[in-house]
Amino acid sequence: MFGYRVPRNYTEALQLDKSNGNIRWYDAVQLELSQIKDYEVFRDKGEAIYGKNKQVVNAPDGDQKIRVHLVFAVKHDGRHKARLVAGGHLTPDPVESIYSGVVSIRGLRIILMLAKLNDLELWGADIGNAYLEAFTDEKLYIIAGPEFEELEGHILVFHKALYGLKSSGRRWSEKLHDIMKDLGFLPSKADPYIWYRENKDGTEYEYVAIYVDDLLIAMENPKEMIDQLKEKFKLKIKGDGPLEYHLGCDYYLDPDGTLVAAPRKYVSKILEAYKNMFGEDPKSSKLPLDKNDHPELDNSELVGPDQIQKYMTMIGQLQWAVTLGRFDILSQVVSMSRFRLAPRAGHVARVKKIFGYLSKTKHYAIRFRTDEPDYSNLPDQDYDWCRSVYGDVHEEIPEDAPKPLGKPVVHSVYLDANLFHDMVTGRALTAVLHFLNMTPIDWFSKRQATVETATYESEFVAAKTATEQAMDLRGTLRYLGVPIVKQTYMFGDNKSVVTSGTLPHSILKKRHNALANHRVREAIAAKIILFYWIESKANKADILSKHWDHASESDII
Question: Which tens digit of pLDDT belongs to each residue from 176-195?
Fold first, then answer.
């Protein structure tokens, strides 16, 4: 991990220290245990007394005995980390939810874009030992092991929500919820782990996105909130300051002040993991996969269990790279993900090629450009739909959404479909790319659920998917208090689909696509969507729908 060997247990950690001629892992363990002591995670009940069959005779009545173990890791800056984790898998399942709050990655990108749009400062922060801030109501104890040194053999009863207990995530989430409410924030109904409040003069919203114990803060004065967390709530805040690194992604400003998101450290990390797996760096490649390549037709030999495990690891790594912003490899990763359980030698070679492409394009990034797109040359589409089957339909605006504040955004969505993408099943591929102003904010690529026999049909299915996603994104924006400029601008490169969708008098000819047809047309009639035709070379979703052979992604990533 980041060039260091990571131990699997306490004994191995001491052995690694000895062979490395240092005490980094020992120090990491001592730091963790000192924090366990400071937070009063356990109540010491004295040395355990054993009776027959090695039963602890002085254990607390009604408490269940479990185990704890140390988990080791290396952070992106080289720090050695040890974490004491409880064996919560040994305890009964609670009735209530057990999870802590995790903001969606799409929601995170929306907050980043809104921060730059409304001139808010972006800070990152990590709440140290977050779970240990909360109390547990689980009745459990352990017998301390050698890592506890002078307490070895003692009965330690759980008092705080140690990592690994089934209820710890929930207990921490509840505590943080109360803190955010005390600071005047409200959770968004679209993404409950995005918190918002009006700024002091009531002209815009400030936001905090929570990913368990990692905070992304978009405020006029983030330091003021950090100081409150430290002083009023006595939280241990680490890494607070202007946003530079968050959830595996690097952030910096271009010379012109544009925010840039680039998962460079993460890409370097998975390239290093590749070298550890195969003993060499991936061969540099200009493309993720060759144009018109069809891995589903590969007939090479099936690989063994070791290669299957490596294949699954590489696919998981690539999927997170896509999530962090590398959507230029999305369609290729979608294609290769299908073979995780039984890959062939040719499939392994193709995934290696994607890694070779990443090694050549580590600098690729997303720029959060907040200027509005110029659509002044688009033709008017103000048709009368009142006498259509949809009647006087309109977009439903949620009554419980916060009032819109701040600068407005323009939502654009590009769609595409690749007919006969899968030559074994005959299914097409749907691709959708969303923008807020000039910033790519969400991406989607997936095989269609049914076989379509013509481009028109597959494109209409893609238009239905894009429409539903657009409606969902508009709802999210409204629940974040974001003003939206007019309808969503939707672009596709099939003129027949656009004509059928936008003209009230168009006749439905493909009956088995009736639901997709009605979904798109009703959204247009309700003035939710404006649907326009563009040439294929101008379709930004093209990068998501096929294995491309040119640098079409250069203007968006």
Answer: 999 999 999 999 999 999 99
At 140, the amino acid letter reads L
**Chain-centre distance of CA 420, in angstroms?**
30
Query: What is the full DSSP assignment across 186-220?
Result: EE-SSSTTEEEEE-TTSSSEEEEEEETTEEEEEES
Distances (CA, A) of 47 to 56, 429, 431, 482: 10, 64, 62, 59
CA–CA dist 213, 331 (Å, integer): 32
**Exposure b/e, 269-288, CB count within 10 A at least 16 = b:** bbbebbeeeeeeebeebebb
Q: What is the mean pLDDT of residues 512-522?
A: 90
pTM over cut 0.85: yes
Q: Distances from the Cα of 69 to the Cαs of 50, 148, 470, in angstroms?
A: 22, 11, 46
Residue 410 DSSP SS3: coil
SS3 254: coil
Handedness of CA 219, 224, 226, 229 (dihedral sign): negative
Under DSSP, the state recorded for 283 is P
**Could you tell me which of 311, 319, 318 has the C-alpha nearest to residue 277?**
311
Percent of the chain with pLDDT over 70: 98
Token pair in block for residue 431: 């691709």
Contact between 417 and 545 (Cβ < 8 Å): yes
User: What's the chain's length in residues?
Assistant: 557
Residue 75's Cβ-count burial label (10 Å; 0-12, 13-18, 19+) is exposed
| Token pair belonging to 282 | 């991936």
Token pair in block for residue 466:
């894009």
Return d(Cα 365, Cα 531) in angstroms, integer. Answer: 29
Tell me the pLDDT tens digit for each residue of 205-240.
Answer: 999 999 999 999 999 999 999 999 999 999 999 999
In angstroms, the Cα distances linking 268 to 1, 35, 240, 318, 517 are 11, 32, 24, 12, 45
Half-sphere exposure of 158 (CA within 13 A, CB side): 32
**Beta strands 140-143 and 64-65: pairing type?**
parallel
The pLDDT score that the predictor gives to residue 77 is 77
DSSP string, 440-454: EEEEEEEE-SS--SS
Return phi, psi of residue 256, to 5°: -90, 5
Integer Cα distance of 82 and 31 in angstroms: 8
Token pair for 227:
């100081």
User: Tens of pLDDT along 13-61?
Assistant: 999 989 989 999 999 999 999 999 999 999 999 999 998 888 898 989 9
Contact 365, 328 (CB under 8 A): no
Measured between alpha carbons, how far is 137 from 275 in angstroms, rounded to an integer?
45
Angle between helical axes of 305-323 and 330-337 (0-180°, round to 10): 150
Task: Report how far residue 108's alpha carbon sits from residue 191's, in angstroms, rounded to the nearest whole number.
Answer: 10
Write the pLDDT tens digit of every residue in 136-147: 999 999 999 999
Q: How many CB atoms lie within 10 A of CB 169?
A: 23
